[in-house]
Automatic annotation (TrEMBL):
<keyword id="KW-0808">Transferase</keyword>
<dbReference type="Pfam" id="PF02260">
    <property type="entry name" value="FATC"/>
</dbReference>
<keyword id="KW-0227">DNA damage</keyword>
<keyword id="KW-0723">Serine/threonine-protein kinase</keyword>
<dbReference type="Pfam" id="PF23593">
    <property type="entry name" value="HEAT_ATR"/>
</dbReference>
<protein>
    <recommendedName>
        <fullName>non-specific serine/threonine protein kinase</fullName>
        <ecNumber>2.7.11.1</ecNumber>
    </recommendedName>
</protein>
<dbReference type="GO" id="GO:0005634">
    <property type="term" value="C:nucleus"/>
</dbReference>
<dbReference type="InterPro" id="IPR011009">
    <property type="entry name" value="Kinase-like_dom_sf"/>
</dbReference>
<comment type="similarity">
    <text>Belongs to the PI3/PI4-kinase family. ATM subfamily.</text>
</comment>
<dbReference type="Pfam" id="PF02259">
    <property type="entry name" value="FAT"/>
</dbReference>
<dbReference type="InterPro" id="IPR056802">
    <property type="entry name" value="ATR-like_M-HEAT"/>
</dbReference>
<feature type="domain" description="PI3K/PI4K catalytic">
    <location>
        <begin position="716"/>
        <end position="1028"/>
    </location>
</feature>
<dbReference type="GO" id="GO:0000077">
    <property type="term" value="P:DNA damage checkpoint signaling"/>
</dbReference>
<dbReference type="GO" id="GO:0005524">
    <property type="term" value="F:ATP binding"/>
</dbReference>
<feature type="region of interest" description="Disordered">
    <location>
        <begin position="32"/>
        <end position="59"/>
    </location>
</feature>
<feature type="compositionally biased region" description="Basic and acidic residues">
    <location>
        <begin position="34"/>
        <end position="59"/>
    </location>
</feature>
<dbReference type="GO" id="GO:0005694">
    <property type="term" value="C:chromosome"/>
</dbReference>
Amino acid sequence: MEDMRRFCHAVFQCLDYAMRWLHAKRSSSQLSKAESKAGSKAEAKSHAQKVEQGKRDGGDRARLLQRLQDIYANIDEPDGLEGISAHLQVLDINQQILSHKKAGRWAAAQSWYEMQLAEKPNDLTVQLGLLNCLKQAGQHDVLLNHIDGMRIDSSVDSKIMPFAVEAAWVTGRWDNLATFIGRFQGSFAQDFNILLARLFDSLHKKCGEDTLLDSIREIREAVASSMTTSATISLQAAHDIMLKCHVLTDLEMIVSSRSSTEDDRNKLMVLLHDRLEVIGAYFSDKQYILGIQRAAMELMRPAYMDLDVSGLWLASARLARKTNSLHQSFNAVLHASQLGDDAATIENAKLLWRDSHHRQAIQMLQGAIELNKFMSQQGGLTLSEGSLTKLNSHQKLLTARAQLLLAKWLDAAGQTHASALREKYQQPPKTFASWEKGHYYLGRYYKKVLESEQPLKADDQSDAYHAGEIARLVIENYVRSLLSGTKYLYQTLPRILTLWLDMGAQVNKAPDGKALLPAMQRRRLEQLSLLHAFLDKYILRLPAYIFYTALPQIVARIAHPNADVLERLVHIIVKVVETHPRQALWSMIGVMTMATTTKQASDRKERGTEILKKLRNGSKKADGLSGSPADLKQLIRAGERLSEQLLLACHNGDFHGNKAVQASLTKDLRFNDKRCTPCPLVVPVESSLTATLPAASEHIKKHRAFSSDVVTIDSFLDEVLVLSSLAKPRRLTARGSDGKTYMLLIKPKDDLRTDQRLMEFNGIINRALKRDAESGKRQLYIRTYAVVPLNEECGIIEWVPGIRTIRDILLSLYASQKISIDYHAIKALMEAACTTEAKLGLFTKDVLGRFPPVLPMWFMEQFPNPSTWFGARLKYTRSCAVMSMVGTILGLGDRHGENVNLEEGSGGVFHVDFNCLFDKGLTFAKPERVPFRLTHNMVAAMGICGYEGPFRKSSELTLSILRQQEETLMTILEAFIYDPTLDLQKEKRASKAASKGGAGVKLQPQSVVDSIKRKVKGLLPHESIPLSVEGQVDELIKQAVDPRNLAAMYIGWCPFL
């Protein structure tokens, strides 16, 4: 073993020397070209980056940009090419075609290739380019016709035939397929499409199952032999191999199901659909897989029926519609219609609507519904009773889908009056009662009615509005949707709670400007009574994890003035804690330890104590605990002891100075570890506290939201790190029951309930980013972490390891270059630069000139491997864009260098300290002028594209998703902003603004809501015409990099770093 270590050490020494020699003897430009030719695109980009750092004149830069454009054209990074193009003043025709192909504009690229082919009919490169355009556009018939008309030399058949065989199996031309296989001159093992074509030819010849499975195994072996080191260095590099393996597994399952039962075949179709969804936003890969699945099933009839194949055609149609390939989508719908699938009518109507033929789309859908088309027997099939029930369920769902689509279109087109529209929305839940979408949209319609009445004068509002009947209808339909699924959980549950709690609080209050008549009060009480009778039934039926997702909002309202409402709130809390005690009790700790400084706080503590007493005396055994109900008593007692000790650790200790210091948990903070550990509560980290929601196919009641193997707190280590910031937060280390250590930051003198709600909000945004195909493809995200308030002044924050502040990184890099910061001199220059436009150069030249951008150096030092360097830089750029947009919408300020961090392992951007929300930065003595942090260092670290390309595109995608999800996000934010326990006007918050020179301006909840809504809609301050997503992003970037705005920032923000 020792000899092996020495041999390895010697080898790596030789490699290190060789690399240093190569870099010394060869220019970065030469290395970039060599690596590109060798297929190492990441290495080529890395060397090109070094060239960029050394070259600044126009000619060299233009050549470098063109070189980078060639590199980006050959890698799977969708935005880099666009970023490079933005820096080229004029694009030549080849560069334009490159951009068209990268953006999926195949028709434009096809036209150019056809023009080129007229001039150079024998040019193989042009011919292959045209065939690729036709393939990507789904024009397989045209592709085959083009190949038939080509004069192909037999020597180039091996390059043409892979296109031909794929088009043949997609269009079902099996005789042509055999001909094309015979014309292929190359090695069969070298081309995957040819291997698949031979398999399909065997299927067409009715070969046995064993023969087919042997063929699949042989193809898999050929794929495995191509798994070289360079082909598997990263997920991106291995993409094609993974796609081939996916295809072979699908084919294996399809072939093996030839003799299976109908029920097994239905399960297979569901499995194939779920596997396809895993691929995400790779639409061309999905179309490729669907084409292969259809071909296999067509050749295996009668084992697979028309409806199986038509379902795959409709999946292709939906994909094509989403990518605006309407011709391809119409073609797929036509195939599904020919197979007798009535669902094709819905997809056809959607295509008409997408193509702006709104009236025809509505007529087509209305006609199909009136003819009862979706409820007719499918194709005269003879089915078993169980299958018939399943088919009836399928037909009801189709009918309900058509009815809801019609209601939404009539609503959007404004083509029907209110009562008729209400009837249209009521039809889908009646047709198919267990479909959550039908209930959700009916509730959404009533919410729209409710919101239309809110701004009216009291005399103009309807009696149904004043009585609370409309609010009740919203709540009831939203609750019904939750019983059938969780897709709309975050749109519905916060709104249910807000409307219900407000309805209970207002039941005895007169409307503004109107007396409360006895008859109206009776109607209000009747509506509330009806709602409570409904809720009593559904609180029992809904699983506890549904309510767990909104537990902080529920616990915050236990001081509610209405006794009937309070009774049901207590019932919900008890149900959640009994079902998920190890997780849910963390939300109750804040009530256990609350200071009674106000009557509201006193009421909340008193009622919290009553709830805990009820839990202790309850007869029901808590879920996940081994013994009797006494275990829950012990758990509550353990939670109380732990919270007491954590509060002691928060407040104890006398620490001074501006440096982090080590301390003892037991001696300095007087924390009694033996008194409170081991504790059966889970370690308060995000992975333990977040409930998982059921997938669409799972039964909602059987779902387990938390793993049975939870990690609880075993003990605390004695070493504590006291940080240098003013509040002296302390980093504790807990040892979990799994033996691992978990770091937690306990923070005194700060109300973390706002941070907790903001993390919940960011979690909702993350779900939206994952669901969107384009953002999912780019892996856009916000890094979140657990926040657990201990009371209104202290709390726990999950410590995220491996992060470092941007300020610390930059200061280290400048120190290594002997560059120091004279804050006094810089402040004077910045103040002088703000006086007149002519003096702005004092900032751009004198200040920024002292601090050349150095952040790119950190990425190169931190990620020496070119592939990981490129991935880290992309992650940095994209995560920076996401948080920049979300922060802008929320009015997040105070983004100085210590509140923006980088993840040392991945390059991702990580934000902390969310105290300065809702545009509070505008109230500072030096109001914040920039919407987010985008200094010259941050731009330089994004590479030669700067904020063009990945940053701009990721910003546009994020802002677009925020607009699409406006209703959901505003529901969450309004519950947060109007929460009486999270007073936005607290003096403590105002004093923080004052500490930065502000006037301590108090925020009004309604003005905060209105401001956020304006931003989401794209309205700039004092403007009445909204900007497009692209226009808003462009304006925000301009504001963020404008030297006039940067020079006007306060000195502590460090706009020069």
